[in-house]
Structure formats: structure tokens, C-alpha cells
Design goal:
With about 900 residues, the protein is α+β, with helices and mostly antiparallel strands. Helix content is about 25%, strand content about 35%. The strands form eight sheets. Strands 11, 16, 17, 18, 19, 20, 21, 22, 24, 26, 27 and 28 form a twelve-stranded mixed beta sheet that branches. Strands 5, 6, 7, 8, 9, 10, 12, 13, 14 and 15 form a ten-stranded antiparallel beta sheet that branches. A five-stranded mixed beta sheet has the order 30-31-32-34-33, with helices on one face. Helix 10 packs across helix 11. It binds zinc ion.
Length: about 900
């Protein structure tokens, strides 16, 4: 999801070097006094005074050059913070240090951040106080162009028919006032006080986005009265954003300024502002990049709407409702699409790949406190980078970052973002391997399980069921993809991992990886620290993200399941079972270590679970031809709602407590007649969602749809065709009923504006599964299952998008599936059809002609035609409708009394009168 507070991280990549959190408390010693003197020298603006700080061994020529850089004219305030201190080579212990410092140099309302390496030496004194001097210095990095913005009280304009425009947005002020915040290059912010009759209009270009606007506002565009507007833009673009022909320089009454200034102060901190921690408590902003634009619009009807255009996001335009925290619209502008910066390109932008993680993390459930070290081995993908952006929850503080290749590194955080920008103090080119050692700590609450979970978002819909003191079950902590609980690369960057996780007694851990032999180790009580369990997990197969579950667990049982070389078995089943060109599957697992663990009260259920899980894993392996991860732990955890979450190597299944559970049988993900549904869905995620990842949120259906369809296939395997059809019919009904909520490709945004996660499940889970079944009915079983294998082996441990899925099925079926995918994945709604039928007189054999006419947007779908004969006999015939008007001649076996379209309800259709 996009983050709307703070500057886009990419904006800073070009600039970011610099500041980090305090890593050592300053000690009042001689070194601190030396740095204070350096601050004074900088503020005095006299480079010569710097020479007085030098030790006898310093090279005075270098020092003079450096002093001009450091002590430029006009510095109004200098702040120096020591970040690192190491012994200086060639000095006796305690006599010399190499310091890493960060410097904020303010010049009025502008500032620059620099990092310097300072070599210092102790000089002999006659007093007891130690005294230090500079022996060498080197500038490492700097970020210029920080602005402390203020609204100008002396400069105001009267607005006369002012129109502010950006893509698909217009703000019109027939009358009003405009105040600006200046920089030396020109204004970068403005506040508009809108007079009577001022309005805004937002009408997104893409049809699917207008549908979302319709859900939000009741019409294709948002038109509303406007009271105040806050704007940010690049200083060179003031005239383009706020056209001069709508402005008349003017005096403004003080109360108008006060009103504008209040608006300014509220919004200026929310975007493009840096967290400078102990360097400055002021709000320092970076100017938006050229072409970037932000408008905070206070409207009558919707309160504050945030419009942003951000050239670094592939989907560069967005509209956000601040009060309700909802994305109303997110899409690529025409120029962005034309430039090929569409959503499919998103992952090729990653600057680096993480190859391997080694985590050593202690977690204290009582305080929800992490203390960790993460070793990241990564490879640079971009041509050259001078900084790396890691994901890490904002609550977790980076204590230090060390790199084998670059030494001690500094990092920067942007307010409101789960990012750490690591400054390399140099460039790394494509292919370079870098090892980062990150020490971090902090309090982090587990998030509700992410969108992978079946019971997703449900507690948000019903606040009374949020887990808390009222929850009578066993407490558990699940840290997974939604909480960046360890420093990590871009989302969905596959890597192998080793995890050492320590928790106090009586807690246990289940995590994504194989439990090492001899693990866990009991760490005895030391220094009043309670005894602890230290676990070692290893993920030898690449995983999309790492997850850990901390709770009280009892081992129910463990078993080695033999998978009998499933691909070989498929091959011997005949050519029809294999993808049309042999894909190299690489090594596959012929064995699976299956373990079930449970909260103590869930032991009995855990025992029932093992044979079911074994059956499911064997069945899925027989379909796909492989099982991606050699180990699987199923953890049964008490929760207020059924559901689950499935990282690689791990499936967490929620066991609802009868007393705490709301009745949710009316949910799209409730299949009461198939109690194995949750485990069947969750286990399928080992293949879909984990081994085969999805590229952007538009492709999330690949994870949920395939898992949901696999769960239905398992229902058929275990309980027969009738249950399978019943489940699909139910899914088709949900897809039809919620069809207008948006296309499958809308991903997490389905039901987002409405705040109703059932819509998300109805479309992303159920409609996706129904679409896969329709695809199978269209191209036939053999091509369909070969397509499944082609997708899996083509994308194991990688991310794919919708077009890859389409390409695999096209390859195996030899058919163009463009219209099918466009209609069912990219478009919303369900086909509306009318049909008629007639007996064909005199033919031999006898026939009926069935005519199907599409009334709405043209689609492509299979549908069952039921022929009712005289008596009770019926016959089902499958047809595929591809044209607006399609006619089918169907041979019949007797006297046809009636013809019914879609009687089995397996196609989401609206059948209207003939
Ligand atoms: Zn799922």
C-alpha cells in the first residue's frame, strides 16, 4: 500500500546520505569539548580558526582545504553529533580515535547535512583535563537543499478565477487568497484560502478507477466545495501550478494570514519532511522533484483529500481520504503508461537483491520487545548505487550498521515510513556483493495477519472482537510479511535464511524454516534473566519473507511423508500430463517432514489434523509435480475467528473458541459443509503465494485464486463431485453478487473504500477460483493442468504477474486468451445474457439451436446448457460463448421440453428475459 505521509523514499535516493539516530550518548569529555569548539568555529564563519584546532601532526595543507568546505560563510547554526568512535591506527590505546560525525549546517532557513571522518589525537596538558586536537579529516557525504519552510506573512495574492490543475484534477477559486512559502529558487508550498463558490473536481481517466470513485462518491467524478488547499511543488514550477493570470498581488488581513498559517503548519510536516533525530527538532523539508505535486484539499463533503503525483511510483497518481485512511484512486497516468513504467515493471526497479539472511533475534513477549542482529548478503542490481533502502518497521531503532566492504555505515529515516536508507559512503556497481550487519531493537506489536489470511481484516469490521484482554484464549504473537520485524529488501525478494530466535520460557517458536537438529536449546537463567529457548531454523529453499510465531506450543506429532518422485509419476502418466515443452524442474523434494504443533488446549484437534495434512500435501504434489519446501510445520493457535496464515515452511491455523466466535457462516470464505476448507486453502499457499509469488497487488489473485481453487479440488478428491460443485456454485454466486465492486486485478483495494473485507474475499478468493474453473472448462483438463505445471516450474521461487499466467495457459492450449483474461481479471461485473432455443425440424440426428446474446460488455465464458427431455431425463452440454451473438446446434436424444442456461450456476452470469 502506498504511504502518504512523508516523502516518497525514492525521492531521497538521489540525495540521501547522512543522518541517523543517535548511537552513543555523548560523554562530557575532551572529545565532546573539541566538537563543541568546532561547532563554534563553524558558526563564527572563520576557516582560519579551524587551524587552531589542529594537532602538530596534521597535514596543514589538507586541513586548509577541508576547513573551507566545512566552515563556509553564512552558517547560522552548526550541530555536530558523534556517531562512531574507533581507535586510531598508529596511536597508543586511548591516545587517538577515528570519529564518524554528522553535521547539520544551517544557513537561515536552509540547511545541509554532512558526514565527516575526523581523526583526533590527545595532546599533553598540564591540567588533569584531557585535551584533543584534529589530526586529519575527510568529508564523506552531504545532502544539500533542506528547507525550513515558513509561510510568508508579507507576500499574499488575491485569487481571481484561479485554476490549479494536475492530471485529472482541477481546483477552481473564483475568489480567495493565496499565501506562499519561499525558497531562494522560488515558492515550494502554497496555501489557498478558497472564497465562495470554490470547487474541486477529480475524474480519473481509467474506467476501473471511475468505478471506485463511484463507490466512494456516488458518481464518476468527485465534485465538491473547497475551503482550503495546501500545495507542494518543485520551486521551478510555481507559475505552472499556480498560474499568474489568476493572481493579483495584494495585502491580506492578519486574520487571513493566521488562518492560512494554521493550514500550513498542519500539513507541512506530513510530506517531504525528514527525521533528523538529535540533529534538529525542526521540520526540515526537501523540495518535491520536478513534476511531482501534492495537494491537501479540505473539502466540505469529504474533509481532507490528498492528491499526489509522484513520478517515482509506477502508479504515479493517487487520491487518498486522510480521515478514513483509504486509497480512493491509485493508477498510472498516460505519460507513465507510455513510458513503460506500468505496474508490470515495478520489480525490475529494485536496486538490489538480498541473497541470504542470517538473523539472531531475541523477543520478549511481555514487552513485545525485539533485540536483534541481521546479516544481509545482497547483490547490487542497479548500474550504480550510493545508498540502499531497507524495509524495517519505524518503531525499530537501528543501533548500528556495519558492512565488510564499506565499514561503519550511516543511515537515514523518513518520518512515517518503514524504511531505512543506508548510505554507502561511495558507489557500488552492478553485481557487487555487499554484506550488511544491522543491529536493531525496539517494541513492535504484531499486525493482524496480512491479506494472505482467510480471516483477513475481519476483526477490523467488528471492533468488539479485536484481540485483547477480552480474548480468553492462549496469547500468540505472529510476525510476518505485514510487520517489517527484521531489516529486509524489497517486498517479495526471494532469499534463503538462517534464523536464531530466542524467547523466554514458557514460550515456543514456530518459524519459516527447518528446525535444526538439537534445537531448541534451553538457555539457563542468567543475571535474573528467565530461562529461555533458543531456536535455530534454516530456510534452504528461497522464501518471499520470513515469519515467526511465538506462543505456547506442544508438539503433537511429526512424520516423514514420502512424495514418490511425483514429476516422474506424471511423466509416466503419458504425454498429456506434461507441459508441452519439458521444463527443467531442477531438484524437487521427494520427502516432506510434516509436523503439527498446537496450543495446549488444541492437542486433540492437532491429532486429527496430521492425516488430513498428509493427504492434502500428497494430493497437491500429485497435481503440480513438486512440493516446494522440504519441511512444513502446522501450528494450531487459538483465535477469535477461523482462518490462517501461511508463510513458507509454516501454516498457522486459527482455532476459534466457541465462546469468543461471532457467527460468520455468511462469509464468502465459510464453507460449513467442508470443515477441511481452511487447512486445504492454507496448505495450497506453499505453492501459490510462497513458492510462486505475485508481482504487484494487481496479481495477488494468483496467490488467493489458485489456493482457493486447489482447496475446491481437494474437496472433490475427498468428498466427491457434488460438494465440489456446491462450493463453486457458492463462489460463483458471491462473484456475481459483488461483481460491481471492482475487477479481480484491483487486489487489496476490493472492499477497501467500503471497509468491507467480505468483498475482498468474494472477488479475490472466490471469483478468482471460479475464473480458473471456467478457464479449465474452456481449454480442457489436459491443457489446464499442463498450464498449472508450466506456471509452477517456470516461476518457482520468483514472482509472476497476470500476463505470465495467461501466457502459460495460451502456450498449453494454443489459444488466444486475451479476451477471457481481460473480461474476467481486468474488468469488473458479470456478463448479462439473454438466450432462446428452438427445435430444428426434420434434421437427422435431431438438434436444438441455442442462441445466446450478450447484452453488456462483451465477454468470453463457458456455460452449461441443460436439455430437459420429456419425462425426467436431462442432459448437460457445455458451450463456450465468444461472440456477442452466438448460436449452437446441439444434437439431442429425444423430445426436448425445455433448455436451461447455467442451471448448475457455475458461471457468474445474469440471465435476463429472452
Ligand atoms: Zn489465502
Amino acid at each position: 500500500m502506498r504511504r502518504f505521509v512523508g516523502a516518497p523514499a525514492m525521492l531521497l535516493l538521489a540525495l540521501a546520505q547522512g543522518a541517523s539516530y543517535a548511537q552513543q550518548p555523548p560523554q562530557v569529555d575532551g572529545i565532546v569539548r573539541l566538537l563543541l569548539r568546532l561547532e563554534q568555529v563553524m558558526q563564527a564563519g572563520n576557516p582560519d580558526a579551524y587551524m587552531d584546532l589542529l594537532s602538530a601532526v596534521a597535514d596543514r595543507r589538507f586541513a586548509r582545504d577541508a576547513s573551507r568546505q566545512l566552515v563556509g560563510p553564512g552558517i547560522t547554526r552548526a550541530v555536530i553529533r558523534e556517531r562512531d568512535r574507533a581507535p586510531l591506527e598508529g596511536t597508543l590505546p586511548g591516545d587517538g580515535y577515528r570519529l564518524m560525525v554528522e553535521i547539520l549546517a544551517e544557513r537561515g532557513s536552509r540547511a545541509r547535512i554532512e558526514t565527516w571522518r575526523l581523526d583526533i589525537r590527545r595532546v599533553p596538558t598540564e591540567t588533569s583535563e584531557d585535551e584533543w586536537r584534529m589530526a586529519g579529516q575527510q568529508s564523506l557525504t552531504s545532502v544539500d537543499g533542506l528547507h525550513r519552510l515558513a509561510l510568508s506573512a508579507s507576500k499574499a495574492y488575491r485569487a481571481r478565477n484561479l485554476v490549479v490543475r494536475s492530471d485529472d484534477l482541477e481546483v477552481r477559486l473564483p475568489d480567495g487568497y493565496v499565501f506562499v512559502a519561499d525558497t531562494a529558487e522560488g515558492p515550494t508550498a502554497a496555501v489557498l484560502l478558497a472564497g465562495d463558490g470554490s470547487t474541486m473536481s477529480f475524474r480519473p481517466a481509467p474506467e476501473s478507477e471511475r468505478e471506485q470513485v463511484r463507490i466512494y462518491a456516488g458518481s464518476d467524478s468527485i465534485e465538491t466545495r473547497v475551503d482550503e488547499v495546501f500545495l507542494r511543488f518543485n520551486p521551478s514550477e510555481f507559475a505552472a501550478r499556480v498560474p499568474a493570470d489568476g493572481l493579483v498581488p495584494s495585502e491580506a488581513a492578519p486574520e487571513l494570514f493566521r488562518r492560512a498559517d494554521a493550514v500550513f503548519r498542519e500539513y507541512v510536516v506530513k510530506s517531504f519532511s525528514l527525521d533528523l533525530a538529535d540533529l534538529s527538532r525542526d521540520t526540515w523539508s526537501l523540495p518535491p522533484a520536478e513534476g511531482d505535486f501534492l495537494a491537501e484539499i479540505r473539502t466540505r463533503r469529504f474533509q481532507t483529500l490528498t492528491y499526489s503525483k509522484s513520478s517515482n511510483d509506477p502508479e504515479d497518481i493517487s487520491l487518498f481520504d486522510r480521515r478514513r485512511r483509504r486509497n480512493i484512486s491509485v493508477y498510472a497516468s498516460q505519460p507513465s503508461l507510455a513510458a513503460g513504467a506500468g505496474r508490470f515493471e515495478a520489480d525490475s526497479r529494485a536496486a538490489f537483491d538480498v541473497l541470504n539472511y542470517e538473523l539472531d533475534v531475541s523477543f520478549d513477549p511481555a514487552r513485545q520487545w525485539f533485540d536483534g542482529r541481521a546479516l544481509l548478503r545482497l547483490r547490487v542490481r542497479a548500474d550504480a548505487v550510493n545508498s540502499l533502502t531497507l524495509r524495517l518497521a519505524e518503531n525499530l531503532t537501528v543501533r548500528s550498521i556495519y558492512s565488510n566492504e564499506f565499514g561503519r555505515l550511516l543511515s537515514l529515516r523518513i518520518r512515517g515510513q518503514n524504511n531505512v536508507i543506508v548510505n554507502l559512503a561511495g558507489f557500488a556497481t552492478r553485481g557487487t556483493q555487499i554484506t550488511l550487519d544491522v543491529a536493531y531493537s525496539g517494541r513492535l506489536e504484531p499486525a493482524e495477519p496480512d491479506r494472505e489470511a482467510v480471516a483477513l481484516q475481519f476483526p477490523q469490521d467488528r471492533p468488539e472482537f479485536i484481540e485483547g484482554s477480552s480474548f480468553p484464549g492462549e496469547v500468540s504473537f505472529l510476525y510476518s510479511s505485514r510487520t517489517a520485524w527484521y531489516p529486509q529488501g524489497a517486498e517479495g525478494d526471494y532469499a534463503t535464511a538462517v534464523m536464531h530466535l530466542t524467547v523466554p520460557e514458557p514460550y515456543q517458536v514456530a518459524a519459516s524454516g527447518e528446525l535444526a537438529p538439537g534445537s531448541p536449546v534451553v538457555v539457563p537463567e542468567i543475571d535474573r534473566q528467565p530461562p529461555a529457548h533458543r531456536y535455530n531454523f534454516e530456510a534452504r529453499q528461497p522464501v518471499r519473507y520470513l515469519a515467526c510465531l511465538v506462543t505456547r506450543l506442544v508438539r503433537v506429532s511429526t512424520r516423514t511423508v514420502s512424495l514418490v518422485e511425483p514429476l516422474a509419476k506424471l511423466a509416466s502418466a503419458g504425454a498429456g500430463a506434461m507441459p508441452s515443452e519439458p521444463l527443467t524442474p531442477g531438484s524437487f523434494n521427494s520427502q516432506l517432514e510434516l509436523t503439527v504443533e498446537a496450543n495446549p488446549r488444541q492437542l486433540a484437534r492437532g491429532r486429527q489434523m496430521l492425516p488430513v495434512a498428509e493427504d492434502i500435501m500428497g494430493y497437491y504434489t500429485s497435481i503440480v509435480g513438486d512440493s516446494p519446501y522440504p519441511d512444513l510445520t502446522i501450528a494450531l493457535v487459538e483465535h477469535n475467528l477461523p482462518g490462517g496464515h501461511s508463510p513458507a515452511y509454516l501454516a498457522v491455523l486459527y482455532q476459534p473458541l466457541p465462546a469468543a466466535s461471532p457467527n460468520w457462516s455468511g462469509d464468502p470464505a465459510a464453507f460449513v459443509s467442508f470443515p477441511e476448507y481452511f487447512i486445504a486453502h492454507e496448505l495450497a499457499h506453499q505453492w501459490w503465494g510462497q513458492a510462486v509469488g505475485w508481482r504487484t497487488y494487481h496479481d495477488q489473485w494468483i496467490s488467493e485464486g489458485f489456493s482457493q481453487y486447489f482447496a475446491a479440488l481437494y474437496a472433490r478428491q475427498r468428498r466427491g463431485e457434488a460438494l465440489f460443485q456446491e462450493m463453486l456454485r457458492r463462489m460463483a454466486k458471491w462473484s456475481r453478487d459483488q461483481g460491481k465492486a471492482g475487477p479481480i486485478a484491483l487486489g487489496y483495494r476490493l472492499g477497501h473504500i467500503q471497509g468491507d473485507s467480505r468483498i475482498f474475499r468474494a472477488i479475490l478468493y472466490n471469483k478468482s477460483a471460479v475464473v480458473l474453473h471456467m478457464l479449465r472448462r474452456t481449454i480442457g483438463d489436459e491443457a489446464f493442468f499442463r498450464g498449472i505445471r508450466r506456471i509452477y516450474f517456470g516461476a518457482r521461487f520468483a514472482r509472476i504477474g497476470t500476463r505470465d499466467v495467461r501466457a502459460a495457459f495460451e502456450k498449453e492450449s494454443g489459444r488466444d486468451l486475451g479476451r477471457f483474461f481481460n473480461a474476467w481479471i481486468e474488468s469488473s461485473g458479470t456478463p448479462v445474457v439473454a438466450y432462446s432455443w428452438a427445435r430444428e425440424a426434420g434434421g437427422a440426428p435431431a438438434e436444438v439451436v441455442v442462441r445466446v446474446e450478450q447484452r453488456g460488455r462483451e465477454s468470453e465464458f463457458p456455460v452449461t446448457v441443460t436439455l430437459q427431455y420429456a419425462g425426467v431425463a436431462t442432459e448437460d452440454v457445455q458451450i463456450v460463448v465468444r461472440e456477442r451473438v452466438a448460436e449452437f446446434r446441439l444434437p439431442v436424444k429425444g423430445d426436448v421440453k425445455n433448455v436451461i442456461l447455467n442451471r448448475d450456476g457455475l458461471t457468474p452470469l445474469e440471465v435476463v428475459g429472452r
